[in-house]
Amino acid sequence: MKTVEIDNTGKKNTHEVNRKTFVEALEVPFRDLRPIFSISQVATIFARGKGIIMNLGVIKMLISHDRVWLFNTENEEVTEAIAPGLAKALKADNPDLDFELRVIEFAFNHKMQKMKSTAEDLEKATTRLLKRVEKEYDDRSLERLLKLKKQLSRFEIILKENEAAALEVLDDDEDLQDLCITQRLKLGEGAEVDIEEVESIFESYTDQIERLSYHLGDLKENIDDTQEIIALKLQNRRNSIIRYDLLATLITALFSLLAVVTGLYGMNIKNNLEQNNAAFWIIVGGFVLLFSLFCVLILGYLKRQKIL
Description:
The chain is an alpha+beta fold. It is built from ten helices and six strands. The chain has three domains: 2-92, Lipocalin (Beta Barrel), CATH 2.40.128; 100-235, Methane Monooxygenase Hydroxylase, Chain G, domain 1; 242-304. The chain has a six-stranded antiparallel sheet. Helix 3 (76-91) packs across helix 4 (99-135), helix 4 (99-135) packs antiparallel against helix 5 (139-170) and helix 8 (196-255) packs antiparallel against helix 10. The two termini are 74 Å apart.
């Protein structure tokens, strides 16, 4: 498998390796190497033997006390951004941090920058779309709003996975001690290891993720509020249409009773009304007054019941 190897001086070398090399050199069980060799994107951080296995999605690395191996080299971000950036960071003198902690800190910072950039892009897209939807919404805008909400939900899951992986280590002092490989090698097994620096690195990472999660929560809440407002507007429109339809149906039904006049004069049976010129107008006028009274009474009842 192809990997980029970087030592504690920042020297970078790309070459092929097999898993057995790491199992023998770092005393890492074969099965524990799966997170960095598999395509899984689930955040994973733990120490085994003399190495640290870290999977932060694109960033997949195996760390020892004096060198780090980067995997997932088919990804351009690894070869063009992560590897050069890490090599440059390791070349800088920093006597306050051990090698493995500098690598972990760089990995966290790079991951955090990527997540912040993604969050900013989502925020800009969401803000533009919400402003557009508030003025005028159509099917395309509503579909885009739904897609953005799904993207926010997926991104929120990624944040929670990374936070959970870091908190799992942060909540266990033994796990934090296991990550301090340089100190363990210097002091020997069973010696008390200072975990203040590694704890600070993990706390900073989790705090940043937590703040970003809260910000995403506000964005999702804005989308939910907008969707509720749109739903209320659509419901109000449907109610208006139903009221107009009811009114039109009522008026049509009432005036259709005027067909009685047509029936009276259209029958083949003589009823002596045909001979009386005034009878037609009296009947028509009576029916119009009667139907108008019905309309007023029914409309008044519907308004009292708040149907119209």
